[in-house]
Amino acid sequence: MAKTLGPRVAQLLTGLHERQRPTFTLGDVAAITGLSASASRSLVHKAQQRGVVTRLKPGLFCLVPFELGRATEHVDSPYIIARELAGEAPYFISHGSAMELHRMVTQPSLTITVSCTRRLRVKAVGGYDFRFVQLRPEQFFGVMKYWVDKERFVIVSDRERTIVDCLRRPDFSGGITEVAKAMWMRREAINSSQLVQYALQLDVGAVVRRLGYLLEYYGMAEEDVLQPLRESLTDTYQRLDPLLPQEGSSLARWRLQLNVSEEELDMVRSS
Fold first, then answer.
1. Where does the AbiEi antitoxin N-terminal domain start and stop, copy by copy (predicted)?
2. Of 1, 7, 66, 183, which alpha carbon lies 20 to 30 A from 249's?
């Protein structure tokens, strides 16, 4: 490696492999080589010219695996890129992207959605679109590790938190029927009591209404599990699917406007 790459680039690649950092920043380069910021940029540029590094965005790079042969471009896992974009801020892969990781979708999402305590804008990196949802520190709960490979992991919302988040923002997961499909597909693995606890902890009225109705509709929870949701209801009505028009009958029991037909909800069981 040193003969073909030069000692400095070889040192960098070795250090990145030892630190398990195939996706890395200029800060990593400086820490490994001891070079200044300008010298670090120059070194990475040299590595990029030699086809061993791909530039994902200013300040963010990815190693090109040697097993790819003569290839000079490579993009790492989008979930690892999402982790790097979040920086030091607490984050987790969420909404439709978490549904995909938990195998709760019939169609994959084209956008990587990340919940983060840091305010970040939508970014396009390495051919992927990254959407960030800002949350308060007290809303950071219900997460777990997801191993991207044998050595690296990212943080993702667990199944129950994923459903709760998607009920809050169905537009980030394809609409309320897609959330209902996810619940039905994984009904044997989902903990309904945990779902209720998360909904109450998040303290969003629309989530409480939608969750209670769907759990009841699909027979996924007993009355004693649903009761805490009922007790938290206010008089305000919310649409079952906020992406659809304000139409349909009103259900007083859950303070919901049912703008999704029962026929559509019943089709979930056969999807």
1. 16-64
2. 183
